[in-house]
Amino acid sequence: xxxxxxxxxxxxxxxxxxxxxxxxxxxxxxxxxxxxxxxxxxxxxxxxxxxxxxxxxxxxxxxxxxxxxxxxxxxxxxxxxxxxxxxxxxxxxxxxxxxxxxxxxxxxxxxxxxxxxxxxxxxxxxxxxxxxxxxxxxxxxxxxxxxxxxxxxxxxxxxxxxxxxxxxxxxxxxxxxxxxxxxxxxxxxxxxxxxxxxxxxxxxxxxxxxxxxxxxxxxxxxxxxxxxxxxxxxxxxxxxxxxxxxxxxxxxxxxxxxxxxxxxxxxxxxxxxxxxxxxxxxxxxxxxxxxxxxxxxxxxxxxxxxxxxxxxxxxxxxxxxxxxxxxxxxxxxxxxxxxxxxxxxxxxxxxxxxxxxxxxxxxxxxxxxxxxxxxxxxxxxxxxxxxxxxxxxxxxxxxxxxxxxxxxxxxxxxxxxxxxxxxxxxxxxxxxxxxxxxxxxxxxxxxxxxxxxxxxxxxxxxxxxxxxxxxxxxxxxxxxxxxxxxxxxxxxxxxxxxxxxxxx
Length: 504
Prior knowledge:
The chain is of the alpha/beta class. The chain folds into three domains: 1-207, Leucine-rich repeat, LRR (right-handed beta-alpha superhelix); 209-336, Leucine-rich repeat, LRR (right-handed beta-alpha superhelix); 346-492, TolB, N-terminal domain (Rossmann fold), CATH 3.40.50. Helices cover 16% and strands 25% of the residues. Strands 1, 2, 3, 5, 6, 8, 10, 11 and 13 form a nine-stranded mixed sheet that branches. The protein starts with 6 loop residues before the first helix and ends in a 12-residue tail after the last helix.
C-alpha cells in the first residue's frame, strides 16, 4: 500500500505530481508562510508545506479564492508541527495529509469538512484527542492508525462510512463512542459495531481484559482487533462463521481464545504475531476444511498443522510460552494449572539486555552472559504476559539505535533508546570471595526510574544450571505486578533435573 512507503519516496511522488500539474496548467505557488497551493477553477488546494513554524493557521482564502481542500500528503512528515487550525472553508482532508506529524498534539477540524482521507493522521503519535465534526460522512482506511496517544474518539451521527483499520494500533484508545442518532454505526461497551450489531468493526487498542463478542455478531471486520495489545482473552459466539483477515493480528497480550464450531474459515494472518497466545480452544464439532484454514500465519507455530493432522480439529491446543512454535493438542476439558493470576503484566513490554561482567579479566565462560539473557527471556515469557523482545529483534534494534561508545547500559534509558518497550533490564555478574553475585535492574524507559531490582548470591554451577537465574526471575516478576501462582513459584525454585530437592 502507498501508505507504508518511506517518506522520501512519498515526497518524490508528490513532487512528480506537482510537476505534472504545473505542466497541465494547474500552477503551484507558495505563500510567505510556506504553504504551497494550486488553483483549480475557483478553489484553492493546499498541496505542501515548507515552513518551520510549530503552529500553523491555514487561511480561509488565498488570492481571493476559498481554500477548500488539504491535499494528499500536504503536511506529511512535518515532525516539528504541534498545532494546526483548518478554516471553515475546507471540505476535504486528503490521503495522508498529516501522516507522520509526530509532534502534532492538537488540530481543529471545522464543521465544513465532509471527508477524512486514507491515513490522514497516520502515525501522529502525540495526538491525544480529536473532535470529528458532525459534517463528516466518511473516514478513510487507516485515518488515525498508529496514533498511540489518542485516548478518546467520538463518531458523530453524520458518519456513514468508516474504512478498515481507521483506529488500528491506537494503544491508548480505551473506548470508541458513537452518537446515538448515527444510522450506520453504534458503540457497545466502547467497541464499534455496525448499526445492526452484526459486524464488529473496531475494538479499541487500549481496552483491557477479557472480551466476549456479543451473540448478535456474525462477522468480524478485517483487522478489527489488530494490535489490541491489552486484550487478554476472546470468546467468539456461535453466530460467527469466519475469522477475517488479520482480525487479531499483533494482539500481544492475548493469551487465550475460544473458537466455536460455527467457524468454517480462518483467513490469512488472523492471529499473526500474538506473542502471548498459549491456549486456543476449538469447540466440539469443529471441522474447518484445510483449504479454508489459511496456511499463511493464521496462527503462530504449528497449530494449523496439528489441527489438520487429526480426524477432528476439536480440542484445546497449548504451548508452553509465546515464543514456542510447538503446540500440543489436548481434550477440551483439560486445563493446565495457571502460572500467574490477574493480567500478568499484559500490555507491557521489556527488552532484556546481556548482563556484563563487573570486573575485566574474570575467569568466567564467555557465553555465560548470553545464557543468563536467554534464560531470563524464557522465564518472563513463560511466567508472565509481559511482551518480551526476542533475541533476534533485540539484537537488531540495538545495532540500529545504540551508539557503542556508551559504556553505561542505563544511558540507553536516559538517552531514549530502545523506546519500543516499556521496560529495559540491565545486569552485571560480580566475582566475590565466596562465589558470584548477579545483579539485575529493570528501569522504566520513559524516565529511567528503577522499577525492580535483585541481587542474587550464587555459585558458578547455579548460574550455569540456571537455578540462580530462575530465583532472580521469581523475585523480579512480582515487583512488576505479576502475581505468580504456587505452581510457578515451585517450578522456579525447582533444582536442576537429576538433583533432589534441597532439604529445608
